[in-house]
């Protein structure tokens, strides 16, 4: 092998590795997805939560969500395929829907409001990012004030002086 073919082979191998790395970065990206069954108001219209939604993924039951409940799933990749069995009322018929939700690449923790999604609302209505509450800051209020607790100054003469 001459010097030119060695260099071309090495450059080709490096490019192949970079392409595989980029592909794995996109395909193998994991998302934590929170699924809500909560009533939502959008553009002045209310979309009510269903009585119960049973969520299936890959043929296995993830959870049953009643009104106001939230479930969680970890998803690898940018598409999430679910089967939803929906009961709108306690004694209503069960309806089954297969859904495919495209997950945004830029978010790790995603909240999907199922009533808004099922109503066909735009992504901005049914999809938000989950941001955990920050830890409360310690502002130092636990410390005792120095000096006199009653605000008297030390230059006042005590009785008998």
Describe the structure.
The chain has 161 residues and is α+β, with helices and mostly antiparallel strands. It has a domain at 30-129: Immunoglobulin-like, CATH 2.60.40. The protein has three helices and ten strands, in the order αβββββββββααβ. Strand 7 (79-87) and strand 8 (94-102) form a beta hairpin. The relative contact order is 0.15.
Please give the CATH architecture of the domain at 30-129.
Answer: Sandwich
Enumerate how many helices there are, as a single number: 3
- State the order of secondary-structure elements, H for helix, E for strand: HEEEEEEEEEHHE
- Sheet with the most strands: spatial strand order: 6-1-9-10
Strand segment count:
10
Q: Please identify the top-level CATH class of the domain at 30-129.
A: Mainly Beta
Structural class: alpha+beta
Mean pLDDT: 85
Major sheet, described briefly?
Answer: 4 strands, mixed
Radius of gyration: 29 Å
């Amino acid at each position: 092998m001459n010097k030119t073919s060695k260099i071309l082979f090495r450059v080709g191998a490096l490019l192949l590795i970079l392409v595989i790395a980029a592909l794995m970065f996109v395909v193998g990206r994991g998302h934590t997805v929170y699924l809500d069954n909560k009533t939502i108001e959008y553009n002045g219209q209310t979309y009510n939560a269903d009585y119960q939604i049973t969520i299936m993924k890959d043929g296995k039951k993830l959870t049953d969500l009643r009104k106001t409940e939230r479930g969680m799933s970890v998803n690898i990749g940018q598409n999430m395929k679910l089967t939803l069995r929906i009961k709108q009322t306690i004694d209503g018929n069960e309806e089954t829907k297969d859904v495919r939700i495209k997950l945004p690449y830029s978010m790790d923790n995603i909240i999907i409001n199922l009533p808004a999604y099922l109503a066909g609302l735009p992504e901005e209505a049914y999809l938000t990012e989950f941001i955990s509450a920050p830890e409360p800051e310690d502002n130092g209020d636990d410390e005792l004030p120095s000096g006199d607790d009653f605000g008297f100054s030390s230059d006042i003469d005590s009785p008998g002086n």
